[in-house]
Design brief:
By secondary structure, this protein is of the alpha/beta class. The chain has eight helices and six strands, in the order αβαββαββαβαααα. The protein has helices at residues 2-5, 25-31, 48-60, 79-90, 101-110, 115-129, 139-144, 151-158, and strands at 11-14, 33-36, 42-43, 68-71, 77-78, 95-98. The strands form three sheets. A two-stranded parallel sheet has the order 1-4. Strands 2-6 form a two-stranded parallel ribbon. A two-stranded antiparallel sheet has the order 3-5. The longest helix is centred in the C-terminal third of the chain and has 15 residues, at 115-129. The chain is globular, with a radius of gyration of 17 Å.
Length: 163
């Protein structure tokens, strides 16, 4: 529909955001655990800072209209690996607990998430779990001239958000 509209559009397609780790804060605070439905699947978390760098580039330079860019961090990581990195940066133990996408959806429904939303996320988690999101592309590097930040760098810059 957007392509047919005639509007000059550039598509930015980010992978998992590094900042999604903030969703773990409550369970880390309450019981030192992260419950995740995507293990052993890989994602390539991108720092929102890098998305902003790409957006600034495509908004201020011509020639991007009609193009789509895959935005990702420099490495594909499992959620367990991300939790290990976060625990290392925070200097504390965090237990990783793998749950199924269905279990995760059921808990969220019990906590008040609308069922349609919980089931939509269940489908997304199943794709992640199956390894369908560990894509690595060079678009951030090619567009900005510098590599995207690592998940560890994001954790180091945002460690205070977990205190």
């Amino acid at each position: 529909m957007l392509r047919d509209s005639g509007i000059a559009i550039t598509y930015l397609r980010p992978n998992t955001l590094s900042s999604n780790a903030l969703w773990w804060k409550n369970s880390i605070d309450s019981d030192g655990k992260v419950y995740d439905p995507t293990d052993p699947g890989l994602t390539s978390p991108i720092d929102p800072y890098d998305i902003a760098r790409v957006a600034a580039t495509v908004l201020t330079q011509s020639g991007h209209e009609g193009h789509g860019y895959i935005l990702n961090g420099p490495e594909a990581l499992s959620a367990k690996e991300q939790v290990e990195i976060l625990a290392d940066v925070l200097g504390r133990d965090i237990e990783f607990v793998s749950v199924t996408p269905e279990q995760f959806a059921e808990v969220n429904i019990e906590r008040g998430t609308p069922e349609s939303q919980a089931r939509g996320l269940q489908n997304l988690h199943e794709l992640f779990r199956a390894g369908r999101s560990g894509v690595l592309a060079d678009d951030v590097q090619n567009l900005t001239g510098s590599a995207p930040r690592t998940f560890r760098q994001w954790c180091e810059e945002h460690h205070v958000d977990f205190n």
